[in-house]
Design a protein that fits this description.
Radius of gyration: 21 Å
Bound molecules: pyridoxal-5'-phosphate
Distance between the termini: 42 Å
Number of strands: 16
Largest sheet: 6 strands, mixed
Length: 501
């Protein structure tokens, strides 16, 4: 199977090259030339298999140039009890007869980014070795909070790689920040960038497409790649858990074979929900993809009107990993919607670049609306969703998942659709203990408590232990202190990699 670019559909690449390179030269994103299909029989067979077998079924259908044996070895290493704290890897919990929650936060950093970033380093280093690449790979990451830590954990001390993470200094939670600035490893570099996530992401994207800077690296025996969700190697492992959720519900008889259900995804860069779209096209009987946004509701407006307009205020919210105005992976969906016309993508993305907005034609908008339903939750609504979910189900959700829960309720009310629904839970509530406790117990309860006392309090309210990777943060030394302006990111890279020495 070959990969093409959303901005050049003549391109033909193997998956290894697409994963190694991350983003296409002309700025487009890599997409598979066809979407493989799974049959009812495949799903029934997978129902009796574990997560690794499900992962093999999905990944082997997309990554045809990885050998069976090696892919199995990679999957085995990535999804096991060393790095995930439960054997199901991505367990589905039943809240009531129609609502299910899939917990995607049982990996080392307690957010769903681990689902892909635990395997990406293996996929990438394998691709590097097999394609005869002799350069050191420099992973450049812009993070809204969770990707950074998950990528650092995934790539730490991986031979032949360096990893550089930029996070916005206004816009990650205290715990997220602590997780990154205490990161250990010989090949890790972390810096705060003044501004918000879009400033950081735009900075990183411009470095990726800066030919002169790439040349400078090349001359020193290095090359950039991306661990952001624009990399196909990030996306394809995310398709697995949608297949896994469906087959789990087949196994438990909560779904009949072929029975349609909805998925709710708390959305930022549009990677997670895009993976659900691929799963749907592979044959998972997903009906509506419900796209949940926080106060930065650009996607909600887009799905309603077909106008993507970034000329609006950016808000910092209590669901920081969704504080995004430019959802990069939307480009892949648009490519499919307009019948893979790369010139159309060049026009829309060109307009976005130059004017900050673009507008879909009527037909594309209709297609978009047949696939997606969009809604958003503001801060109060997010807190209310945490509180109500706790009261109704005795189940604690983090603020990102709560945005999804709010939008799910809105969707049911507005459409009267009662199909079974899986809400994907993207982070452990322990990553955002202050806001979660505030929602459940009120502001007074957390006043005067420091981050770690708040963690303790959440543990006692929830009757579960603080995840070990979070409790140990209290005693870890801060190893990364750099803060810089977005304009100085190139210089920071030069310093980190000692390129001018
Ligand atoms: C990254 C992230 C999201 C958004 O996912 P996208 O794939 O960027 O849409 C939502 N919730 C949490 C907790 C995240 O870390």
């Amino acid at each position: 199977m070959y990969y093409l670019s959303t901005r050049n559909n003549e391109l033909r690449m193997h998956s290894m090259d697409a994963i190694k390179q991350g983003i296409s030269q002309e700025g487009g994103l890599f997409v598979p030339e066809t979407i493989p299909k799974l049959s009812n029989r495949d799903f029934l067979e997978l129902a009796d298999k574990d997560y690794r077998s499900r992962a093999f079924k999905v990944l082997s259908s997309y990554l045809r140039d990885y050998s069976t044996e090696d892919l199995n070895r990679i999957i085995y290493a990535a999804y096991g009890k060393d790095n995930f704290d439960c054997p199901e890897i991505a367990p589905v919990k039943k809240l009531d007869d129609s609502l299910f929650i899939q917990e995607l936060w049982h990996g080392p950093t307690y957010a769903f980014k681990d689902m892909a970033l635990q395997i990406l380093p293996y996929l990438m280093t394998y691709a590097v070795a097999k394609t005869g690449e002799d350069k050191e790979i420099v992973i450049l990451v812009a993070t809204s909070g969770d990707t950074g830590k998950a990528a650092l954990e995934g790539f730490r001390d991986v031979n032949g790689t360096q990893i550089i993470v930029f996070y916005p200094n206004e816009g990650v939670s205290p715990i997220q920040k602590l997780q990154m600035v205490t990161q250990e490893g010989k090949n890790v570099h972390v810096a705060a960038v003044k501004g918000n996530f879009d400033d950081t992401q735009t900075g990183v994207k411009s470095i990726f497409t800066d030919g002169r800077f790439s040349k400078l690296l090349e001359d020193r025996g290095k090359r950039f790649s991306s661990a952001n969700s624009i990399n196909w190697g990030r996306l394809v492992p995310q398709i697995v858990y949608y297949v896994s959720a469906y087959t789990d519900l087949l196994k438990s008889n909560d779904l009949d074979p072929g029975e349609k259900f909805n998925i709710v995804v708390p959305t930022g860069n549009f990677g997670n929900i895009l993976a659900a779209y691929y799963a749907k096209n592979m044959g998972v009987p997903i009906d509506k993809l419900i796209c949940a946004s926080n106060r930065n509701n650009i996607l909600t407006d887009f799905i309603k009107t077909g106008v993507y307009d970034t000329r609006r205020d950016f808000y910092k919210t209590i669901s920081p990993s969704m504080d995004i105005l430019i959802s990069s992976n939307l480009e892949r969906l648009l490519f499919e919607l307009c019948d893979r016309q790369d010139h159309q993508l060049r026009i829309w993305m060109g307009e976005l670049n130059e004017t900050g907005r673009y507008k879909l034609d009527g037909e594309s908008l209709k297609m978009l609306q047949s696939i997606l339903w969009g809604g958003s939750a503001d801060e109060e609504q997010t807190l209310k969703a945490i509180r109500d979910t706790y009261r109704q189900y005795n189940y604690i959700i983090d603020p990102h998942t709560a945005v999804g829960k709010w939008v799910y309720d809105e969707y049911r009310e507005e459409t009267r659709d009662t199909k079974k629904t899986i809400l994907v839970s993207t982070a452990s509530p322990f990553k955002f203990p202050g806001d979660v406790l505030k929602a459940i117990k009120g502001m007074e309860y957390i006043q005067g408590k420091d981050d770690f006392q708040v963690l303790e309090a959440l543990a006692s309210v929830s009757g579960t232990k603080i995840p070990p990777g979070l409790s140990e943060l209290e005693n870890k030394p801060v190893l990364h202190q750099t803060t810089l302006a977005a304009g100085n990111m190139r210089q920071a890279i030069i310093n980190f990699l000692e390129l001018d020495g």
